[in-house]
Amino acid sequence: MQILVFVSTGGWKTIKGTDFMKLYFTLIELLVLVTIISILGSLLLPVMGGAKYQSKLTQCIGNEHQLGVAISRYSSDFNEFLPRLSVNVEGGCRPAIKYNGVDDRPLLQSYMSLNDVLVCPLTRKIDLAGSSSNNVYSSYELWFGSTVLAYESEGMMKITDTLGWNGNQFKVMASSLDAWHPAYWQSSHPDRNVGLLTPRRLNSTGILQSLWMNGNDPARGNIDRNFLFTDGSVEQILNVKMLDTRLKPIPYFSNSTTARLCYLPAQ
After folding, report:
1. What DSSP line would sit under 104-170, residue for residue?
2. Per residue in 63-105, pLDDT tens?
3. In terms of pTM, does the model score above 0.85?
4. Strand, helix or coil at 208?
5. Which of 9, 12, 118, 178 sees the fewest Cβ atoms within 10 Å?
């Protein structure tokens, strides 16, 4: 039996049926090939996802390094003083850079690009610099330029200062956000396995915030965190549990009705 086929280099050509079968896959061979490709894909996807996560986690470290350089430049220009975060009127590290009409963005923008430095690669992209929202939050706990609580005098106002709380001393100027609230947990990094944290962007009530949150109960899985210290170094602590004993609690902010806690490595 002869079969007429079209050959791209020479037009139509007659070949024997047995030769034709040798040139092309059978249906069974195609199904086997598709199955093998599917299996390989299922094996590679977690690896590729993990590599993507590690890349963004490394970018987050880079963000904190850039933030440290910007803070150091400011400190050099202003006799070791750190940028005063006026929106943190209650003290703590509430990561707002604009809050109810008080706007710290012009102060910070003189030394860094807000969208490049203060938006964590592991969260959704938002426009911190150009937002007209009433309340604009970064992806990081900003401990510099504020007292621990409104009624406390101790805080990180100069590059040589430390934070003191409940007998612990901290030299952390900024860190990836991970804050406990009695009604929810919020973080700038996703939990690795449990998946209790989900992406959330709040802007319907004048808030611009890009975080991972659990709004059902104050819980999350293990996360990886980055911490910027006063000497400009960045430390990474992996698989941080809720209430992790490697970290010590410090108020995120406090007022008359509620108190929230963050957790930092103590000296």
Report:
1. -HHHHHTTS-HHHHSS-TTS----TTT---SEEE-SEEE-BTEESSTT---EE-BTT--EEETTEEE
2. 999 999 999 999 999 999 999 888 877 778 878 899 888 999 9
3. no
4. strand
5. 9
